[in-house]
Each structure stands twice: as structure tokens, then as C-alpha cells.
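subagent[fold] <- orchestrator: predict structure for attached chain, return C-alpha cells only, no commentary.
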Amino acid sequence: MKVLITGATGTIGSEIFRHCLAHPDITSVVAITRRSLPEAVSSHPKLTSVVMQDFKIWPREMLQSHSDAAGMIWALGGSEGNATVNLEFPLAFMTAMADVLESEHRAAEVQIGKTMRQKFRFIYLSGAFVERDQNKKLFLERDPPNKDFCVFPAARKLKGVTETESLAFAQEHAHVWQALIVRPGGVFPKDSIATSMLSWVLGENWVIGREELAAFMTDLCVNGAEERDKTMFENAGMLYKGRALLLQGTANAVAVNT
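subagent[fold] -> orchestrator:
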């Protein structure tokens, strides 16, 4: 199985990237980045590295060469109110990739006995505080907006637009495309003091370890949602599933080594 990923050099994306490389069912990981990956991982036998300078332009030839991928884990973005990164980049990818997949789908339809591939899974890393309602007033948001003051509220709304557009896009291209939105709360190192304290104070709905989140998102790309029509995934459910996957991985490793 082949998996595509963006944001592999980021704090969360790098952990997802590591889990993808380690997953036994994933045979190929295509990391699409704007700069070269560290030498420590660049020689990994599962890795194909693609360096792109402009994420608004996706070469058709490149996408065709990876159209056999099970999905894309989109971990590129940030808390800043940058419409180019948080909205234009993912929409450009969706449009370009779906065009390639639909062309292949049409070609497959006319071939007798041709097996149709499963839907391409677009897994979008969003956040628990993301707001889809563009008219809603958010905390610390001024009217008129001032980007130097309300950066975080701006990003929350931008990602809300991306969520809405991603789900609408999946409906329009339902024969080849599936959108899965991941909405974690605060993401911290698994065994850090901050994680333990915040988990105790805020509860399971608002805090998750990077390893649990990465394990969940990797499994989601490989196996899809346990509930067939589910498209949104909140913190608590991801936390429990991620923990179970990590324990299962540890148990499997022990079994192999005994």
C-alpha cells in the first residue's frame, strides 16, 4: 500500500510520517515537501521524496505516477491566518488529484473485467477549535479583523472553510474521493509532564499525545473509518483508538521477538 503525506517535517506531521514508515501494511510512503528531508530518514527503503516549491501547482505526471496511493494525509498548515497554506494548497491538490483519478476511473469503466479501486482517502488534519461558521464572532477577534491581533481566530475560520470545502468536494466526486476530517485538541508529546497535567485539567476531549494521534491517522489512511459513513473524528475517540493501536503494536512486537 502506498500513502502520500504533506507536512512531514512539522511537529505533528513528522510523527505521522514516522508511523507510516513503520506500519507493516504500508510499503511506500511518498513525502511531498518544500525542502529536502533529514538524512536520517531520506535513505529509508519505503520512502519516496518529492520536493515541490509551489503547492498550488501539482504536475499531472507526478500525480499520475502516484495515483495508486490509498490516500493523502494532509498535515501541512499552521495556526497563522495564512489562506494560501491553510486553504489554497489543499484545494489545489484535491482538484488536481481528483482529475487524475476520474480520468482513470472513466478508462476503467470501459474495460471489461477491470476492478475499480477503492476511494482515495483525503485525511485532513484540522483542530478541535476550528470554526466553520464564518459569521460567528470568536474570542479575541476584532471588527474589522486585525491580523496582528487575531491570528489564531483567523486560522480557525480558514480551516473551517477547508473542512467545508473538503466535505463538499468529496460529495461531488464520491465515486473516487473520500474526505476524513481529524480534529484533535492540544497535541503534546505522549509522556510529557504538560500532557499529563493538561489531560488531568482539561480531560480527554481536549488533549492528545502526538503518538496516539499519529497512530490513529495512519490507521485511518490504511483501514478507513470503522463506521462507514463517518467523516469527522474528535479528540476523545482518537485518543482511545490511538492508545489501543499503540498497545497492539507493542504486543505484536513482543510476540515477534519471543
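orchestrator: received. Logging for downstream: The chain has one domain: 2-256. Helices lie at 11-22, 39-42, 60-65, 83-109, 151-172, 193-202, 210-223, 235-256.
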